[in-house]
Amino acid sequence: MSSETAWEGSSLLTQRALDPIAHVRRLRARMAQRTGSQPTLIGLVQGMLEPLRKESPPPSQPAMGFFTDTSLCIGCKACEVACKQWNQLPAQDPVWTGSSYDNTGELSAITWRHVQFIEEIGRAGRATNGREGSNKVGTSPAPTLPEYKSLPDIPIIHPDVPQTPPGTALPFFNTERWLMRSDVCKHCANAPCQEACPTGAIIRTEFDTVYVQQDICNGCGYCVVACPFGVIARDDSGDHRAHKCTLCYDRLKDGLEPACAKACPTDSIVFGEVGQLKEQAHRRLGILHERGVSEAGLYGVDDHILGGGLNSFFLLLDEPEVYNLPENPPRPSNNVAPASLWTIVAALVLGLFGILFFKE
Question: Which of 80, 96, 127, 144 shows its CA 20 to 30 Å from the CA of 61?
Answer without folding.
Answer: 80
